[in-house]
Design goal:
heterodimer; A: alpha/beta; Alpha-Beta Plaits; 2 domains; 6-stranded mixed β-sheet; 14 strands; B: mainly alpha; two-stranded antiparallel ribbon
């Protein structure tokens, strides 16, 4: 069953330009879906619509099987970590307790979850501190941790790791993975591609309000990775004749101390030809490896 | 047991606002006015007469202080909306299990609670240090209704300011200036009589605090209900209008922008 189903969604704030322009995608129950895009691409607007904060201009949207107009029924079953820091101007512990009260979490359950999350997000040392005395990263940790106090079927995370140190960030990503294994559906946005690669089952890249590509990480890298680099360790330095012959294959060449770096689009198709050319000129290949495209390469390729 | 949405929001608003700063503002300033201003002016103004009844200046001042409490309680609701918008809790609550109406009720209810508690404490201080008020049952009902309606009109006024101002500095400046202007142009500290300059009388009678003070003063201090009903009606009509404006503006507050 789809936890989120979006068909031809559009949103305009001024009736002139679409912040979200005819996007369609779906997220299965228990799936972690990453939404990537530049600043202003339409990620946050999409999340705001899906979390019932703002109204769509047109299109069909279903969340947890409910039409998006059933906002109250949806809100009771979702969690949202907004991009902007949100908190009550009181201590960390009180923020947790108040949030638990707002979500009607039973006292005993709230206490145990609070302790678990304080530990997980490394907040024990600052639990009595006023939220205004915390660093930006600590505030973000409070905001994210607080959301896990209540039960939910679907969680929206809009750039949740901003300002977090790598250790807490990894802990959070692993915790999200664990929760997803137990059935939680997650819609996640980030600017850190490694995070999306590590966490998401599927990724959609949007630009100027439009969905450009969608798929799992391997699929995206394989099909939209753009330039890849072939590294060859040779027995001796390469001569100009061989260089020119390689360059004629439309590749970029870098030569450094018997090491040859050949970068090209769709390089997989010309690897046999490259090897043949190198060996034809009397060079022995000692070592060969290829840099895989990263999700960042994909992002640059499709967004630029 | 599941508490209703508005009640959970009210408890949250109460907890967030029960910090020393707010409590000081709610109780410290009125206590200072009542005890220091009251006793100091008593040597200058030995008695105030109304309907052939003589009362001490501190007795005269007490309803004014209660009206001030009402106005101060109104700032809690307005400031809460301001703070929630500034720190994105407004958006956060509206993607939680709440709708806009329950959020608004939460603001009004917390102002009412602060008004009730503030007035109860001020009455206790008054009884402890000054004396006691003699009032009738009808007078008490009028006073309670007036404090209720008064809290709503001031909550609405502060909600309007909170919605219309963009900068925190602007909000703070407006609320502080308004606080003093409303205080000192009302009848809280002195009677507005035929001898009062016309322009000041005009300002005073355009000021809701004057009506709240007059009604509670007549009902609680002078035990006179003459003119109370008409003043109560004026206050109620004004409250309905101001609350309507606040509601309309609140409806236009766009979250997530």
């Amino acid at each position: 069953m789809d936890a989120i189903s979006v068909d031809n969604l559009r949103k305009t704030y001024d009736n002139k330009k679409y912040a979200v322009d005819d996007i369609s995608f779906s997220v299965k129950s228990g799936e972690i879906y990453g939404l990537l895009g530049k600043n202003g691409a339409g990620k946050s607007t999409t999340i705001k619509i899906l979390s019932t904060l703002i109204k769509k201009t047109s299109g069909n949207v279903k969340v947890l099987g409910l039409d998006i107009n059933n906002s109250m029924d949806i809100r009771k079953r979702i969690g949202v970590v907004q991009q902007d820091l949100s908190f009550d101007l009181t201590s960390v512990e009180r923020n947790f307790k108040i949030y638990g009260l707002l979500w009607n979490v039973k006292k005993e359950l709230l206490k145990s979850r609070m302790e678990e999350l304080m530990e997980l997000f490394d907040l024990n040392k600052v639990r009595k501190n006023n939220i205004m005395d915390l660093s930006g990263g600590q505030k973000k940790r409070v905001q994210v941790a607080r959301e896990f106090l209540h039960d939910m079927d679907l969680l929206f995370l809009d750039e949740p790791t901003v300002g977090m140190d790598p250790i807490v960030r990894r802990k959070l990503l692993d915790y999200i993975k664990m929760r997803a294994k137990n059935g939680l559906t997650v819609l996640f946005t980030t600017h850190i591609m490694e995070e999306a690669d590590y966490l998401c089952d599927r990724i959609g890249i949007i630009n100027s309000g439009k969905m450009i590509i969608e798929g799992n990480s391997s699929y995206l890298k394989e099909n939209f990775g753009g330039y890849k680099t072939l590294k060859l360790d040779l027995n001796k330095d390469i001569d100009d004749l061989t260089k020119n012959e390689l360059i004629s294959m439309n590749v970029n060449l870098k030569n450094e101390n018997n090491k040859l770096l050949i970068t090209a689009k769709n390089i997989d198709n010309i690897i046999p030809e490259i090897i043949k050319t190198v060996e034809k000129h009397g060079y022995n290949i000692i070592k060969l490896n290829m840099d895989q495209s990263s999700l960042e390469d994909v992002f640059f390729e499709v967004v630029n | 047991m599941k508490l209703p949405d508005s009640l959970r929001l009210t408890i949250r608003n109460f907890k967030v606002n029960s910090d020393p700063g707010t409590i000081m503002f709610m109780l410290g300033l009125p206590t200072l006015y009542l005890l220091v201003l009251g006793f100091m002016y008593q040597s200058l103004i030995p008695a105030v007469t109304f309907n052939n009844v003589n009362v001490s200046y501190t007795d005269f001042l007490m309803p004014g202080i209660m009206a001030m409490e009402v106005m101060t309680a109104g700032t809690v609701g307005g400031s809460m909306l301001w703070s929630d918008r500034r720190f994105f809790m407004f958006e956060q609550l509206l993607v939680g299990p709440f709708n806009r109406l329950s959020y608004l009720f939460g603001l009004i209810l917390v102002s009412l609670i602060f008004s009730i508690i503030g007035n109860a404490i001020m009455l206790a201080i008054f009884y402890l240090f000054v004396g006691k008020l003699v009032f009738t049952g009808v007078g008490l009902i009028y006073s309670i209704l007036t404090l209720f309606v008064g809290t709503i009109i001031f909550t609405s006024i502060y909600l309007i300011i909170s919605i219309k101002t963009k900068k925190m500095q602007t909000y703070n400046t407006i609320t502080i200036v308004l606080f003093f202007v409303v205080d000192f142009t009302s009848s809280a500290f002195y009677p507005i009589t035929a001898k009062t300059p016309y322009s000041l009388r005009l300002i005073s009678y355009a000021n809701p605090l004057t009506y709240i003070t007059n009604i509670t003063r007549n009902a609680l201090v002078f035990s006179s209900l003459s003119g109370v009903l008409s003043e109560f009606l004026v206050l109620t009509i004004a409250t309905v209008i101001v609350f309507g404006i606040a509601l309309k503006l609140y409806d236009g507050v766009k979250p997530g922008m």
